[in-house]
Amino acid sequence: MTRPARTVRHRQAAVVGIHALPFSKSIGMTERRAGALAILGALADAGLEVADVDAMYRFVWENTTEMEMARILGVENLRAFGEVDYGGGAGAPTIAHAAIAIENSLADVVVCWRARNRSSGGRPWASQLHAVGQDQFERPYHIVRPVDGMALHTRFWIEKYGWQPEDLGRVAVTQRQHARRNPAALMQKPMTMDDYLASRLIADPLRLFDCCLETDAAMAMVLTTAERAADLRTPPAYVTGFGMGSGPQMTAMTFFYGEELGATPSRWVAPELWRNTGLRPADIDVVQFYDAFTPQIPLGFEEYGFCKEGEGPAFMQSSACPLYNTSGGGLSEAYVHGFNLLVEGVRQVRGTSTTQAPNVRHSLVTSGNVVPTGAIVFSKEPW
Amino acid sequence: MSVGDPGFPIPVPDQDTRPFWDGCRRGELLIQRCGACGKWLWQPRPICSSCQTPDPTWTQVSGDGAIASWTVLRPPTLPAFAAMVPFVVLLVTLDEGVRLLGYLVDDAGRVLTTDGGAEGVRTGRRVRLRFHDQAGTILPCWTLAD
Ligand SMILES: [Zn+2]
Description:
The structure holds two protein chains of two kinds.
Chain A: E1 13-20, H1 31-46, E2 55-59, H2 66-73, E3 80-84, H3 91-103, E4 109-117, E5 130-131, H4 146-161, H5 165-180, H6 193-198, E6 201-203, E7 206-207, E8 216-225, H7 226-229, E9 237-245, H8 266-277, E10 286-288, H9 296-303, H10 312-316, E11 323-324, H11 329-332, H12 339-350, E12 362-366, E13 373-379
Parallel strand pairs in A: 2-3, 2-4, 10-11, 10-12
Antiparallel strand pairs in A: 1-8, 1-9, 4-8, 6-7, 9-13, 12-13
Chain B: E1 10-11, H1 18-25, E2 29-33, E3 40-41, E4 57-61, E5 65-73, E6 87-94, E7 99-103, E8 126-134, E9 137-144
Antiparallel strand pairs in B: 2-3, 2-4, 5-6, 5-8, 6-7, 8-9
The complex binds zinc ion.
């Protein structure tokens, strides 16, 4: 079924505030406190106050509910709220829900945040010993860590497409270079291809340097109407559009029981994104692809249509390839379930990235691609 | 490891999945097949996802199949698995078309401590069903067929 381009065009959302607490291995405060401070920082960035806030959306596995956060901050009333599921898939969909609330006049000032002590708080997979649902057929074999499922996908992609270890190594090395220009990034040590190739295997064919960091982080974003954004202090990053998708027969992180092995939900998100934004890949000036693991970058270029299936690594060495994961991303800046990618996507529109792409009109950010997921485009100009 | 040792993740069957685990304890691999449209279904579910007919039929299969993908798991693992590393987990496409996970085991169902190199593990190789007793949980696993 072909759907029309978006019809809601009279009221656009824009990101007007962003903020991050310093990333660390141990932030030394509760996620509740860190999240609240990040939200206050993002409101201050926008020149808005708690009294302006009338909606909140959060990721799943955010231990502070939007009710509790609103109570702590003193928000008078939440006119819209919600929690978006699927871990790393939740990033762009969370911001999309905020934009939907604004576009449909449910709310005027929406706060989204991510505060998670993923480093000091321990690994969630280490304590989940009673396996229910899909997990009962996976966890008993130690398909437990996110890397375990991703390794089975990656073997398939490597063998089908002929990817070489250096193809994934270039992702890690490139993002480390970006991180070293970004004072906020945790990983400042140089990384060469030899360093990458010498890093130990964790779940073959994936190595330590194919994997993201484990970070304590708190970040927030404030959205409002394009009309109100015009009066605020920061240059707005307009939400041009977004897409979401699960694909068929989805199981989180182990999307390989369906008939087509190797596809990820991004393949289903991409047509929704391009229809919803009215853009094409060639219109995108800079990208932040969800990067819990290196293979998600070449696959992202393929599945979002920047190049043909299997040609991601070659495309990434061509002059047509846009700058990607310019803060260092999950691999080398911080792992925040992709919230740092969203914030960096906004910085690219503002022109304030430490690895700034030239003349950014449209900035793409995607979310985790082996879970139900989404993607969003922030733009310099309104509709 | 004693029976029920909490160190390994333990499957918690429910009404929709219990026949699978009961079958494993009898040494039978049971996969659901729709009685109306013939579709093989994995993971277990109460209705056919192709034609929505309730109660797909639990059907014993040989477990013969081929390796669709595989990985070698290495530290850091859950503590219970630390003595096994490195070990191989296979994604196997059964001849019926569904894909299941399982350890690479020897002919007696023992998990092999290996990176798969000596055994020549590779995508496409044929495998046969074995069952492995993991601290009292009977798990379908696979051994190389030739
Ligand atoms: Zn059927």
